[in-house]
Amino acid sequence: QVQLVESGGGLVQAGGSLRLSCAAEGRAIGTYAVGWFRQAPGKEREFVARVVWSGESTFADSVKGRFTITRDNVKNTVYLQMNSLKPEDTAVYYCAAGRARGGSYSFRTSPQNYDFWGQGTQVSVSS
Questions:
Q1: How many CA atoms lie within 13 A of 10 on its CB side?
Q2: I need a labelling partner for 110 at 20 to 30 A (CA). Which of 32, 47, 96, 123 fits?
Q3: How many CA atoms lie within 13 A of 91 on its CB side?
Q4: What phi and psi, each to the nearest 5 degrees, are found at residue 103?
């Protein structure tokens, strides 16, 4: 199994930036689709971004134009660069890896289609 460790969370003012890291151990991260999800207090777990084997990426509408996702196969790490942060971005952020394949947006963004999860890292954005 692959183990995932998130890092890079913290407290930032609105308009600021953070870069989250998802480091994989035990397997090559390039063999997985890797997604970022977040869960805010009182809300359901929400899809944020995803990168697949080919490097193709997918973003939730709420973060398009502000967040980017990249994969570094040498460091075995996926990054989520978060810019122009808003208070609404406050949540615990999780990275997840899976190998299930599906063409629909709902399939690709469903937590059920990811098998391995990190422990989460807190992102707090003040107004």
A1: 11
A2: 123
A3: 21
A4: -90, -20
Average pLDDT value over all residues in the chain:
95
Which of 114, 72, 118 shows the shortest CA–CA distance to 94?
118
Put residue 8 in one of left, alpha, beta given phi > 0 → left and psi -120 to 50 → alpha. left
Write the secondary structure of the chain as one string of H (helix), E (strand) and C (coil): CCEEEEECCEEEECCCCEEEEEEEECCCHHHCEEEEEEECCCCCCEEEEEECCCCCEEECCCCCCCEEEEEECCCCEEEEEECCCCHHHCEEEEEEEECCCCCCHHHHCCHHHCCEECCCEEEEEEC
- What span, in angstroms and rounded, lies between the C-alpha atoms of 71 and 52? 9
Average pLDDT over residues 42-70: 95
In Å, the largest CA–CA distance within the chain is: 40
Q: What is the pLDDT of residue 5?
A: 96
Parallel, antiparallel or unpaired: strands 77-82 and 67-72? antiparallel
State pLDDT tens for residues 111-120. 999 999 999 9
Residues forming beta bridges with residue 5, ordered by sequence position: 23
- The amino acid present at 115, given as its one-letter code, is D
